[in-house]
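so im writing up the methods section and need the (1->4)-alpha-D-glucan 1-alpha-D-glucosylmutase record in one place, dumping it here so i stop losing it
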Amino acid sequence: MTIPTATYRIQFRNGMTFDRASELVPYMKRLGISHLYASPIFTATSESTHGYDVTDANEIEPSIGGREGFDRMVKTLKDAALGLILDIVPNHMAASLENTWWRDVIENGQNSRFAKHFDINWSRPLTLPFLGDSFETALSNGDISVKPDPKTGKPAFAYYDSYYPLAPETYQGRETEVTKLTDKASLVELHERQPYRLMSWREAPRDLSYRRFFEITGLAGVRVEDKQVFDDTHRLILELVHSGAVDGLRVDHVDGLADPKAYIELLRQEAGPDCYITVEKILGEGEHIPADWPISGTTGYEFIASLSDALVDGAKINGLRKAYDDVVGKPVDVAAELRAAKLLMADKNFEGEFTTLLKLAVAIANTDGISVDEKTTRSALRELLVAFPVYRTYGTETGLPPEGHEMLKSVVDKVRQGPNAPDQAGLDLITRILGNDVSEKASGDAANFRTRFQQLTGPLMAKSVEDTLFFRQHMALALNEVGAEPLPRDFSIERFHHDMETRLQRQPDALSGTSTHDTKRGEDARARLYVLTEAPELWSECIARWRKMNATKVVSLDDGPAPEPEVEWMLYQALAGVWPTMLQPKDETGLKALEERFLAYVEKSIKEAKLRTNWGDSNEAYEKAVLDYARYMLSPKNQEFLADFSSALQPFIRAGLVNSLTQTIVKLTAPGVPDIYQGSEALDFSLVDPDNRREPDFAMLQDLPAENDNPDSSTEDGWLSGRLKQHLIQRLLHQRRDAPDLFRKGDYMPLKATGNRAENILAFARTDGDQAVIVIVPRLVFGALNGDVYPSRGERWAETEVELPAQLANRRYRDLSTGKDIEAKDSIAVNLAFADHPFALLTAE
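--- predicted struct ---
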């Protein structure tokens, strides 16, 4: 198996085609990339902007070039000696009439050859929650009729531009008669004879007959645990792997599958030993990828969480928390906020999935003669789901593996001893079912319960944390990131080093990402916002001043002020993260461009919070007030605020750029395969999707200096434009390419800094035999350097040293950036190492 030395993620669609990607291959080669990492390329719905709503897994999307364009791109990659990794989506497909499999299921019900391809409960008609109201209301309003489908000519229920085919047995021999039906009673009767039920989209959370992807009714779960379904959905994928066109696969949302381990084992068997495979998997606190999964690791969200230990000021973050509490008007209990978000998901957003589990549990109790009523069972199930600390366990038909039993016992003990402890009988019942301690007669229902439970804990966790709590709790937005621990915790450099040592031991070939298509903000916005933890008092003073400047735009509504104080805090912090490095307060064009992106973020943020408005039930007065406030923040007429905001932000911008370089250097030298998300090799101040899926300025990015040019950190423009970051990535990626074993297998050795600025240094070494690279980078520089880093001033680091163990001492090192030699005894003086740049990358001679 060829392990990538670095990947480059490209988002196809929205104008990005295979031919355009081919044009970028020379640039990727010069940058030092080994593999292009492609977003889903298979045929998806016509309006798809991302490709995860697949309609045909065995066809390459025509709009981005189809098979011919794909083959041209592959040839270009091969000619440049670059590999290709594909993002595949085994968990779900589009529940769309464009999907011929799904359409066939609608038309033929259980008689469809694809009826078992989708995760559908066939004890009832297939629910189709795509109407604006109930079927009867839509019929009364004249929105539904029977017409010939324009594409097939067959009778169908026509609802605006959608045509839901009638089951053949309900009209055969009388097509003309059926299409002329106008009597509402007859149409209702015809609808009831179909294998499906058209219904309002509002009913989906509580009344759905198929498993969906998270809360998205337009994505139906696929049963890849069935070998025939696996074969049908992976035919083209495996063909591309076996032909050598594709070198690796990235498995989307592996936790959504009925049996992730069995799927991965089958994928490995079918793809072969040489295919590089990673999985999208969110790891909880202290959680690790199961050691027996035949993969190279995860796509790297846990790496972002580890970086926060290096870049957050653990000694001062409580000051930021207190400042936020003061603005809110009371101490924020994050644990209580998390519980509230999880309860919302269990009780409302996933009500249908919860009810299915409850019915199964009650049925099992009845089968085994266990005296537990529904109320008791409901309470126990609810509390277990809310208390679950990770995405899922990995039980099978036979029960839970040892680590699953251990996890379940821990959760049950926590629930039993907690303030909301349910009746013991209910907990015992759920524990017995999950552990397969049931009769043989009930074992089938128990296996189904176990699978459904495990497929629910992940979405419930993701939607309650990433898509609810992170939009409610605004203390430090940089920490509201996919894979991050939502509860307050300690941050320390020792913890970072421990994570990297563990990463080397457990998944050295996993991807290490800092920006993705799913992160809540771009890596450089996050790097800048980490700085707020270093200066909580100053930030608090700024917030108070800005709120006063814009106080006239706060609107009093019946349900409170809009925006409320905590949302104001969020708005200023989000704007601080996204503010372009060189934007001037009087640049009306720049402000307008930023406003468009910022307002979209603000609208999404307050809707995702689900407090005073949401996607399904909009509070228009509240939304207008908040958006008007945000719009005024960026109005060219609001010069007093804009001038103050821009000025106050400058030291945060400078310190953030230092954090940016530090996290970049760490990503490229620590254990793992660095993944560069399109455009983030320069500065990435993106907001949440869809903002982070915008196409970067590839023309600008391709204007890359020659490899041998030294990155210049002495000019402000190099920092502010992102050129320094881009050039440094190029330099380090070429180093990784030239010494792959050092960075893949080499030991990770934390190095201790001593002296005046010891707490402002992160240092470690990678060693492999005689090969060694020493990494010395700054951290927490806001106070130490007053945010002033360019030009580099080595004297500021006087009396600070990095100690070298015997293995690294008394050797000559070459600075990768300058080519200068450094003679090291038992330590390296930081002021010497930082003489030309505020970082040091030293390779052993």
